[in-house]
Amino acid sequence: MEIADLMPVLGGVATRDMLVRLTSRRALESALTAGELVRVNRGRYAVPGVHEGTELALTVTGHVCLVSAALAHGWKVKVVPAVPQIAVPKDRRIDAAVRTRIAVTWTDLHDTQVEGLATNALTTLAMCGRRLPFDEALAIADSALRDGFPVAHLRATAEAARGPGSARLRRVAAHADGRSDNPFESVLRAIAIDVPGLEVVPQVRITGELGLRVRADLVDRHLRIVIEADSFEWHGDRTALRRDARRYDLLVANGWTVLRFSWEDVMHDPDFVRAVLRATVERTQRASARVLPA
């Protein structure tokens, strides 16, 4: 896969080591030369819209915001925006030609809410939590926590929030978890959160008989359900195939129900994923009820 096609799948941001492992050093250098990647900090690269957004924010005397700001902070996202997202004061008029190149959010920002030409980390998380769909906001919040942003700051801000979108922000803050490995897994967890009776925890270590020792993406220990975000990153050869086959065989042999979902279904067909999860939970609950003593 070409790096330009790979970056959206990786969340718009990736480390040098990951890009080299999935492609090659030559492919990385070619992508940088062609402008398909930009360096955001040491050893980390992002989609070119990060720099374009900063330049356009300067043009309209605004600030990069929402998903574009998340990318500028080096956080991974569910969907890379087609054009940079820029916040401008409510009384600002934008030239029609420029409007075609940006997605405008009219809002008055205080000096304490910005950092350079982008909203600062906390403001970015608050805006995303208030304005974005739950799965997109959760993916960004998970990435921020994974990157070291204090969860206590996010939750305190959410609790103090009032006005439009504050309930949505509180929901994101309540479920944000830095243990989630990537946006793929975060979006899958967002879907699972909406399934009645399902209580999943990310990145759980499971041990058992026959030498079972695995770290599963999402786990409901009560229902003994394992949910895997089946990424193409780890399935490149026969050795990986054998490792995965043993992993799932051992889980099943130890009494776990294992569900594996592709990136395409999680990102583009969440109704299918939700239906499978709901059906599995209901079947498991019925089976448990039948074995309970009268």
From the alpha-carbon coordinates, what is the Rg to the nearest angstrom?
21 Å
Biggest sheet strand line-up: 9-10-11-12
Structural class: alpha+beta
Task: Find the count of extended strands (DSSP E, 2+ residues).
Answer: 12
Order of helices and strands: HEHHEEHEHEHEEEHHHHHEEEHEHH
| Residues in helix, % | 40-55%
DSSP summary: helix tally: 14
Please give the largest β-sheet.
Answer: 4 strands, mixed
The outline comes out as globular
**Total tally of structural domains:** 2
> Uncertain runs with pLDDT below 50, 5 residues or more?
none
Give the distance, in angstroms, between the N- and C-terminal Cα atoms: 57 Å
Query: How confident is the prediction overall: mean pLDDT?
Result: 92
Q: What is the secondary structure topology, with strand pairs?
A:
Blueprint: H1 3-9, E1 13-15, H2 16-22, H3 25-33, E2 38-41, E3 44-46, H4 49-59, E4 63-64, H5 66-72, E5 85-88, H6 96-99, E6 103-106, E7 114-115, E8 118-119, H7 121-131, H8 134-146, H9 151-160, H10 166-175, H11 183-193, E9 201-207, E10 213-220, E11 225-230, H12 238-253, E12 257-262, H13 263-268, H14 270-291
Parallel strand pairs: 5-6, 11-12
Antiparallel strand pairs: 1-3, 2-3, 4-5, 7-8, 9-10, 10-11
Helix pairs in contact: 2-3, 4-5, 5-7, 7-8, 7-10, 8-10, 8-11, 9-10
Overview of the molecule:
The mean pLDDT is 92. Helix 7 runs antiparallel to helix 8. The protein has two domains: 128 residues, no CATH class; 109 residues, VSR Endonuclease (Endonuclease, Chain A, 3-Layer(aba) Sandwich). It is globular. By secondary structure, the protein is of the alpha+beta class. It has 14 helices and twelve strands.
